Amino acid sequence: MRYSFLSVLKNGLTGQSGWKPAWRDAAPRPAYDVIIVGGGGHGLATAFYLASEHGLRNIAVLEKGHIGSGNAGRNTTIIRSNYLLPGNEPFYEWSMKLWEGLEQALNYNAMVSQRGILNLYHSDAQRDAYARRGNAMRLAGADSELLDREGVRAMYPFLDFDNARFPIQGGLAQRRGGTARHDAVVWGYARAADQLGVDIVQNCEVTGFLTEGDAIVGVETSRGAIRAKKVGLAVAGSSSRVAKQAGLRLPMESHVLQAFVSEGLKPLVDGVITFGAGHFYISQSDKGGLVFGGDIDGYNSYAQRGNLPVVEDVAESGMALMPRIGRLRLLRMWGGIMDMSMDGSPIIDRTPRAGLYLNSGWCYGGFKATPASGWCFAHLLATDTPHATGTAFRLDRFRTGHLIDEKGVGAQPNLH
Amino acid sequence: MRIPCPYCGARDASEFAYLGDATLTRPDPAAPDADEAFHAYVYLRDNPAGAHSEWWYHSGGCRRWVKVARDTTSHAIAGAELAGGAR
Lengths: 416, 87
Known about the structure:
The complex is a heterodimer. By secondary structure, chain A is an alpha/beta fold. Helix content of chain A is about 30%, strand content about 25%. Chain A has helices spanning about 5-15, 40-55, 90-100, 100-105, 125-140, 150-155, 180-195, 240-245, 310-320, 365-385, 395-400, and strands at about 30-35, 60, 80, 115-120, 145-150, 170-175, 180, 200, 205-210, 215-220, 225-235, 250-265, 270-275, 280-285, 290-300, 330-340, 345-350, 355-360. In chain A, strands 1, 2, 8, 9, 10, 11, 17 and 18 form an 8-stranded mixed sheet that branches. Chain A has an 8-stranded mixed sheet with strand order 5-6-4-13-14-15-12-16. A two-stranded antiparallel sheet of chain A has the order 3-7. The longest helix of chain A has 18 residues, at about 365-385. Chain A is globular and about 65 Å long. Chain B has one helix at about 35-45; strands spanning about 1-5, 10, 15-20, 50-55, 65-70, 75-80. At the A-B interface, helix 8, strand 12 and strand 15 of A face strand 3 and helix 1 of B.
């Protein structure tokens, strides 16, 4: 059923009795053309674009739990394309363009809200770096605007401009950035992919691979063996574990990132603000809670919970930015497992095993990339060539030295 | 998370800086396969879910490197020893 004003009206007049489940809970079939492992945003987007852009129909998405129960349901929902390096920025700008047309493409309200993102700077050197970043963004077709102190004050007068240690000098704004409803993105992609015939198979954990010679020709799962011409991995923090079953070692560590939601407030923060002197980002959900987070904990972890030193660090950064949140109570905090790559940038590439494709290394920035990640991975799976915006995300760049290190901190994942 | 530093006793993890996998050994740069070996040494990780041997530097304490055995699924620490053994 297509969602429209008329369908809402009709169901409103008939006791909401006409709604159907948004997607089928499919049982796995013995063989597919393409299997996507991982039913998060990236995996479902990949399946949707494989069907809608490349005309494939015989596709399955395998998810070990329920769809969207991993990082897609655990992030701070920020969308933006404010990267610096040539390998990254065109990709993220393509993602932003896909966000802008997402709800029409999916016929689903993903609550994409271009409320703007503002990165604050606190020193002359940081202003220069942001000016350079803003120019790089414009070169790739994105929007950016360098604001001085008064420009920031006009947007957010309550920030601590005269903080003794980190006075705010200005900010880099991307007004097309903003937030989207993370669960709705998953549900929208799932529904749209399902309508194009994609099987979404939940509670189906991949436990091994079927091989013929060196090639991967399917997967062993908790619900039996399934053959496929191509298998794509989009399993985020579990990438190393799944790839190990295919005999691969990845340039990756899994780390825990925490996020927080406060009690509900009246409208206070109408965009996304990031603190430039620490690592802290904050926005307000439509329900009223302040949604914020900071650094990863910094040690290898597969536990979906973190420790208190990072909580303290996030709280201190928040207080340095906007002291008025000091009396707020936290409603929830949680952790997710990040696929931290060795240069802080993602991988969308073939693997040394024929038939096996990898989409991974999103660090803690995977949500904003969801549409373009799916688009580029679908392009790779369908055509065996990388999409024009994703040519830099090669698996062998760590061997050849073509790293995409936005922060320039080297092969130390807990610093990215 | 408290790390049992063999020299200082159990201390909060925030006193330590994390390096990572302690099972890696620096390859011989003169070996014929040095390119491959260094690629693996610098970039590739087992990244296990479960028992993990890892380096922590006690920067806020004795300033010794500590090799910690920790479970990455539970954060439980099984033991710790000083790099190079006790002195």
